Amino acid sequence: MQAIKQYTDVINGHVTVDLPNDFTAQRVELIILSADDRDADSGNFQRFLLDSPEMTDEEFQAIDEKRRHLNRWT
C-alpha cells in the first residue's frame, strides 16, 4: 500500500494534493483531519496525563495482590 501524509492549507474550502509520479493507485481514500484541533487535543490529553494522580507502591501492591487472587479463581 502506498501512503502519503502531508499538511496543506485549505483555500476557499478546497484542498489540493499533488501526487508523486510513481503513485500508481487509480482509487484513493481521503481522510481529512484538522491539524489545528489535533494539536490542541494532543496537548489536552498530555496535560490530563500529567495532572493525573500517581499510584503509590503500596496501592500498586494491593491491586496486584487482588489481581493475583482473582486470577486463581476458576
UniProtKB/TrEMBL annotation:
It comes from the Bacteria. This is Uncharacterized protein.
